[in-house]
Amino acid sequence: MARRRDIGTDDPRVRVRPGRGSRPRTKRRPDYSGAPRGSVTSVDRGRYGVLSDDGVALVAVKAREIPSVVIGDRVALTSDLSGKKDTLARIVEVDPRETELARSAEDGESSGQQRVIVANADQLLIVTALADPPPRPGMIDRCLVAAYDGGLRPILCLTKSDLTSDAEMRRLYEPLDLEIVTTSIDTSGNATGMAELRELLGGSRTVLIGHSGVGKSTLVNELVPDAARKTGDVNVVTGRGRHTSTSAIAFVSEDGTWIIDTPGVRSFGLAHVEPDDLLRGFDDLSRVAAECPRGCEHRADSLECALSDYAQTSPRAAARVESYRRLLAAREAALPDYER
Predict the structure, then answer these.
(1) Binding site membership for GTP: which residues?
(2) Domain extents for the chain?
(3) pTM listed for this prediction
(4) 3-state class (DSSP) for residue 159
(5) Looking at domain 37-94, does it have CATH number 2.40.50.140?
(6) What residues are designated binding site for Zn(2+)?
């Protein structure tokens, strides 16, 4: 016997429309494998600059189901791809990333959370001034670790060589088999080292990163004459540069060279990097650590740690071991309590 539907009354005059069946929501997504592709060149408040594979500069929005899009992402596109004024394309899919440059927040509610800055870059140009402001090896080391962890080739760019010698910084980092280029651009526009730098960057996708005031925007303007990035001075009281670039942007040349400028950073958290991965930023220490006992954590109080013995061999070795152990401590401090 069929079960009678309860309509809330026994009055036969009441007629109830038959219920509409509900179809289960499908998890199958449209196939965008054949959709036009492009690369993201800028991100600004929900609008994405995209250079299509046809060479058209587009403005796009992303589909709601896509969690995040960053500069360098390869994306599938639909809607209006004409690039005309006031038209919008739509990002419907993000291709798998080949490389990721990521950093972790170091304070606030998001402490320890990973944030991808740029995708699919080939190189990371770590820009540091030799003076005004003075170099900060700790920041350089963090960027090196992030580069190796993300699959990028690191290059160290020493600016303002007209103010002081680069000998000490080269002595500190050349043992890492790290490509180092020294540059100087004075107020009259006279530049040195730029030919070597252009050769290193040509045909590649390179991210520039560094503290405010190190001359990063000046470099970008020299490399990309139409970039018109703002430049600033160093605060005479704090010794820190003022932020001039407020958002990341990629400048793409006809030969396929990408120059990706990022805002000046105060810190570079590494909570997303596993401890074993930190040694990838220290080639000299990695060979030494192979002699450590199994399970060695490489801290100053670790028993029979080969790094402690190595640190006694020279001032340079001591500085490298100290820097590596400082990164270990900084990473742990950025982790939530339950992950320590």
Answers:
(1) 159-162, 210-218
(2) 37-94, 100-261, 275-339
(3) 0.81
(4) strand
(5) yes
(6) 292, 296, 298, 305
